[in-house]
Amino acid sequence: MQTDHIRLANQLCFSVYNTSRLFTKFYQRALSDFGLTYSQYLVLMALWEEDGQTLHQIGDALYLESNTLTPLLRRMEDAGWLTREKSAHDRRQLTVHLTAEGQESQGPIQQAIAECIGKEHLDIDQYNDTQETISQLETALRTLLTDESKMEE
Amino acid sequence: MQTDHIRLANQLCFSVYNTSRLFTKFYQRALSDFGLTYSQYLVLMALWEEDGQTLHQIGDALYLESNTLTPLLRRMEDAGWLTREKSAHDRRQLTVHLTAEGQESQGPIQQAIAECIGKEHLDIDQYNDTQETISQLETALRTLLTDESKMEE
DNA sequence: CTTCAATTAATCGTGCACGATTGAAAGTAG
DNA sequence: CTACTTTCAATCGTGCACGATTAATTGAAG
């Protein structure tokens, strides 16, 4: 039935939309003490993984572009988490480095999140399969949406 | 391991966040022809289900509050999808009714989404289990977050 | 009836997301 | 070297989300 397809897609999309908002609120509890948003936490994670990335590289990691990242990184620079400077070898690019504050905060921030997960009794182990399943859906949607833009070339 | 908990939570949250954005983009393809956003489509679905709901009732259905719905409904009224009027029996409340346009568009809009699902070869049946799993996670997070606010009372 | 509490939509300010465009810089071809 | 193309970050405008507050209306208690 075609209508069943729509109903399933609607329910699935709505659940994912709701869960995303709820997860963001959940993280916000731990992050608000540091004055961080979830998106800003994602940037920190990318830089903890590898410091000195360009805006473009961070965007590749988080699936975000300059229209979102430029103001976001500026706010994080103002807050003292990182520095922004034009790359020496290619002045079009922007290189982002963590400040000492940004580096040293990794432990405390992740501990705050860990406490939030523990204290709230979020049985996260239960969702090991969920992570795989949702990742597959994510991949399917991404290829579906990016293949389309390739068609136009 | 505590760090494993964080890593799983981070991956899960990031996947849900990405999937939500991708799903919104996917729906946007079908909805843009009608000048609708995904959030506005959710409001239409709630009103197709039951017309004449109050802002509060719509908010209960979509987990949104007046700070989001008031401007959203105003834009939809401006676009001709619905009408907003104060309830007769309780002038604090706002009753929302579909216009003829809003009612008649249900078929075409859902057909556009169905075509989008079909044409893009999104094998949605494959995600029957995913819907259940993500719904459980959604419920867990919601009770977790709303029980907390009850503690403060 | 009067006072106080509760409910409701609206308002305000901030921070994403994102489609679209711009301008600068770098790369490429002739 | 010059002209053209590509690749960047930045900018612009719109529409959510959402914490916090406000003002109007209703309900409840005395």
Automatic annotation (TrEMBL), chains A, B:
Signal peptide: none annotated. Residues 9-146 form the HTH marR-type domain. One of its GO terms (biological process) is response to stress. It is found in: Cytoplasm. Transmembrane segments: none annotated. Keywords: DNA-binding. Its main location: cytoplasm. SMART domains: HTH_MARR. Pfam families: MarR. This is MarR family transcriptional regulator. It comes from Salinicoccus cyprini.
